[in-house]
């Protein structure tokens, strides 16, 4: 008996129950449409290259107390 392959559509399965979506595109805006935008706290965080080397796609946390807060979250 051949095993059955299941191919799930990422677009359909990821959006069910999705609270926020941050595509690491150089800002802290929630792209899910739910309005869970991040706010930079404790000073500006510099944008740096992401793990793939794409410039201005990730934030650098140096341990100086800066963080990204999601208002209304725990």
Walk me through this protein's architecture.
With 74 residues, the protein is mainly beta. 8% of the residues lie in helices and 14% in strands. It is built from 1 helix and 4 strands; from the N terminus they run H-E-E-E-E. The strands form 2 sheets. It has a two-stranded antiparallel ribbon. Strands 2-3 form a two-stranded antiparallel ribbon. The longest helix is centred in the N-terminal third of the chain and has 6 residues, at 10-15.
Shape category: flat
Task: Give the strand order of the largest sheet, numbering strands 1, 2, ... along the chain.
Answer: 1-4
Number of helices: 1
Number of strands: 4
Secondary-structure content class? mainly beta
From N to C, what is the helix and strand string? Answer: HEEEE
Low-confidence stretches: none
The helix content, as a percent range, equals under 10%
Helices and strands in order, then pairings?
Blueprint: H1 10-15, E1 39-41, E2 47-48, E3 58-59, E4 67-69
Antiparallel strand pairs: 1-4, 2-3
Entry summary:
With 74 residues, this protein is mainly beta. Helices cover 8% and strands 14% of the residues.
Question: Key features?
Answer:
74 residues, mainly beta, two-stranded antiparallel sheet, 4 strands, 14% strand, flat
């Amino acid at each position: 008996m051949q095993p059955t392959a299941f191919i799930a559509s990422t677009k359909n399965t990821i959006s069910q129950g999705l609270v926020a979506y941050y595509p690491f595109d150089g800002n802290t805006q929630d792209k899910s449409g739910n309005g869970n935008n991040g706010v930079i706290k404790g000073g500006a965080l510099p944008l740096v290259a992401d793990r793939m080397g794409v410039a201005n796609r990730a934030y650098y946390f140096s341990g100086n107390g800066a963080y990204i807060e999601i208002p209304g979250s725990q």
